[in-house]
Amino acid sequence: MIKTAAPRTLGVAPSEARLRFDAELQKAGGGPRRRLLFVDDEPAFELSFPCGTCPLLFRRLESGREKLSLESMQERLTGALDDPDDAGVIDAFGALLPEGEYLPLLLSVEPKLITPGREGDYFSEEQVATWGIDQFWGLPQYPHTPYYRTFETAVDSDAHLYEFVVPMVPPAWNDRQRVEDYLTLTAEGSVPTAVAVSTLDVCQPALDLQDDLSVHWGLTHFLLDGHHKLEAAAAAGRTVRLLSLLALGESLSGAAHQARLPALRAQPRSTRATGSSNGAGAA
After folding, report:
1. Residues of the chain scoring pLDDT < 50
2. Which of 155, 179, 175, 142 is nearest to 258 (CA)?
3. Cβ contacts of residue 153 below 8 Å, gap of 6+?
4. Distance, CA of 242 to CA of 244 (rounded, Å)
5. What count of other Cβ atoms lies within 10 Å of the Cβ of residue 214?
6. E strand or H helix at 93, and its extent?
7. How far apart are CA 35 and CA 151, in angstroms?
8. Could you tell me the sign of the dihedral formed by the alpha carbons of 140, 141, 143, 149, in that order?
């Protein structure tokens, strides 16, 4: 954590926003509606189901093909942002978002690129330890995209915070020359800044069927700007700054959870030992 600002109202009417949170249209005789993140009116990601006991989820959909970077902010974000309010960055990116309350968080992150199903994959490891595999498919949840892990820490003995940065498009789609340019900049000591809209989903299993009955706080940053920066930082083992605009009203968490987030994010990084809890804790 570098700095936080007070929550503020940002955004435009949902009909004018390039990014919005919504639920899919109900089909006759269909099941529960999925919670979705839309980009340019196309469903880009399926998000955690709002029941509260279902596992954390961010799953890229076939129509998730667009980035939301702003050319007018490129030069300013090539270097480190020192304050969330610097250079009008919040207002510029806020104009892409639906009107609502957002908590600005300026973070320092060292991203690690994760391939689903391989070592370090949250969905195959920590999530399976708490929820087990999907009972229908007989497999772990699958996000359909590589993603970055950046931080985790204990909330209390029965709850843990996991942080993710999710690119709007896979890193394989990035321009190779731009990634190389950022590798050069970071090698010279530059610390670029990325921007994301974020959610805090607090999920807890209903039954103790696995090794680790615990509450998962999922802080998920969906990249608006910074796809090449994150890939370069992950490749070089370096840090970037991340301006997160946490969508308070679109998160599966309450005001008490959200109020604790800045202090939790300022804690030292720590991992959770599987099976360290024998009972469900209050989140």
Report:
1. 276-283
2. 155
3. 160, 161, 264, 265, 267, 268, 269, 270
4. 6
5. 28
6. helix 89-94
7. 25
8. negative
Nearest to 79 by CA among 185, 204, 2: 185
Name the nearest CA neighbour of 205 among 149, 141, 140, 128.
128
Give the pLDDT score at 136: 78
Assign 46 to helix, strand or coil: strand
The whole-angstrom separation of Cα 194 and Cα 259 is: 23
The pairing of strands 240-247 and 193-203 is parallel
- Residue 186's SS3 state is helix
- Per-residue pLDDT tens digits for 95-133: 999 999 999 999 999 999 999 999 999 999 999 999 998
CB 226 within 8 A of CB 198: no
Q: How many Cα atoms are found within 13 Å in the side-chain-facing hemisphere of 28?
A: 0
DSSP letter at 178 equals: H
The three-state secondary structure class of 229 is helix
First to last CA, the chain: 21
φ and ψ at 52, to 5 degrees?
90, -25
Token pair for 126? 């920590």
CA 140 – CA 145 distance, rounded (Å) = 14
- Joined tokens for residue 144: 């359909």
Output the average pLDDT for the chain. 92
Other Cβ atoms less than 10 A from the Cβ of 185: the count is 17
SS3 160: strand
What is the distance of C-alpha 26 from the center of its chain? Answer: 26
Structure tokens at 190: 């530059």
Tokens 């980009």, residue located: 39
Placement of tokens 């300022």 in the chain: 266
**What pLDDT, on a 0 to 100 scale, did the predictor assign at position 280?**
38
